Amino acid sequence: MIKPLPFLRIFISLFLLINLLGIINFSFYETRLEVKSLIYLLATGLTGILFGNLFIRFLKLPISESKGVFKSNLFLIIYYLSNFLSITLITITHILNKGIIIMQGDKRFITFSYTNLFIYTAIITTIVYSAILLQEKLRFTKRFLFFLFLQSLFVLSMGYRSPLIILIGGVVIVFLIIDNGYFNNIKKFFTPDKLLILIVAFTTMSAISYYRVSQQYDPNKFFKNIDFNNLEDKPYLKPIMPTLAVFRYDQQVILKLIEETENNHLFGKLAITNFLTILPGKQLGVRNKIGEIVDARKLPDGTPWSITPTLQGALFVDGGYIAVYIGFFIVGFFAEFLKKLMVSKKDPFTITIYSLFIINTLMLIHTGYYDLLFFILLVLIILLKFITYRINFKIHEN
Questions:
Q1: Is residue 374 part of a domain?
Q2: Most confident option among 94-98, 206-210, 290-294
Q3: Residue 397 included in any domain
Q4: Backbone dihedral region for residue 132 (phi beyond 0: left; psi -120 to 50: alpha; all else: beta)
Q5: Phi and psi for 29 in degrees, rounded to 5?
Q6: pLDDT above 70 (res 135)
Q7: Are 324 and 336 a contacting pair, CB within 8 Å?
Q8: Tens of pLDDT, residues 142-191
Q9: Any stretches that span the bilayer, and where are they (predicted)?
């Protein structure tokens, strides 16, 4: 039985938490912000996603259950092969960089595109396999949990947080939505123990960021929007300061984007920027384009620094408050549509698409538009389903 997550409640909770932590003028922030326009954007986005989600709930969609024979042996070959290649290429990458990348400061940026491709392929096959295990064997096997732990360590060693969030988050979401009669108490989402886990995860990610910065910089100078003098009597807040600094900077970026584009919107050009990066020649991605708009510092090759605009910030650049409302409406609409699709189809690939959408949509709160990689992974999931499902066609004779 499929029990989708309460996406709307989760999104709104995180959206308010992340934005309000950056908007409210706490004493440990270096400067005060004028928050009126920030609140307007916040309210516009919330209204859009609420109406988009509720709109499709009243539509009856004719979606049938997935049909065909699943070729499990073929999928297992793909699962083990993709993970083997992923771990092998990560190891080779560390060797070529003469050390574990997460421990090498700026060298964590020296990677190879095909390594990342296999990392994400392995992540997708792992999430699909987790759904298969819960639907067929009703629980995770010890072998799967061992491979998941090993895979997580190797992904973390590359120094990037997004792949790890997608991997662990995807498996956790699959675990929560497949109701097979086991661990039902654990699967209750809004409980004190889940809140504690989220707090621990939040603190851990922030501490990793603080550690990486402290390898090469003085954190007090690096996080310029934090007044560390106000933290002398609050040392327990220091581990989460990197994250709070990011949330504050998000709002500072939004204010700058409003100032620069309020009467000069891009009318969708920013939304297609990531897709244009596949064209020959040098193309700026969305976050580099945002860096150009806010006049961020440039890399040695002249490329503007990558700046995360938040979802409402990116949408405002493309079309002001109207674009913010429409963009959030679309997100709410597709969240509910994919939920209906998953509940009707019930196959592990549709479950994985739903999980991937949930994770990436929650990440949009901070990062802005979907990356091109998100759409590539969607195509990969559909391709995997096509390869591993044998469709039986019945010919009806007159």
A1: yes
A2: 290-294
A3: no
A4: alpha
A5: -85, 145
A6: yes
A7: no
A8: 899 999 999 999 998 887 778 898 999 999 999 989 876 666 555 565 56
A9: 7-26, 38-56, 77-97, 109-132, 144-160, 166-183, 195-213, 319-337, 349-366, 372-391
Which domain does 9 fall in, by range?
A: 1-391
83 vs 103: CA distance, rounded Å = 23
Which residue blocks in the chain are alpha helix, DSSP H?
7-23, 36-57, 72-96, 113-136, 142-157, 162-177, 192-214, 219-222, 241-261, 273-276, 286-293, 311-345, 348-367, 372-388
Tally of domains within the chain: 1
Q: How far is CA 75 from CA 89, 192, 199, 231, in A?
A: 21, 37, 36, 52
As given in the structure block, the two tokens for residue 249 are: 């900077």
Cβ–Cβ < 8 Å for 128, 349: yes
For residue range 285-319, list pLDDT tens digits in order: 888 899 889 888 887 777 888 888 999 999 999 99
Position 240 in a domain: yes
H/E segment holding residue 394: none
CB atoms within 10 A of CB 80: 14
Q: Looking at the domain assignment, is residue 332 inside a domain?
A: yes
- Quick one: which H or E segment has residue 389? strand 389-390
pLDDT band for position 276 (cuts 50, 70, 90): confident
* Percent of the chain scoring above 70 in pLDDT: 83
**Please, which residues bridge with residue 304 across strands?**
298
Average pLDDT over residues 267-278: 86
Tell whether the torsion through CA atoms of 96, 102, 104 and 107 is positive or negative: positive
Residue type, 215: Q
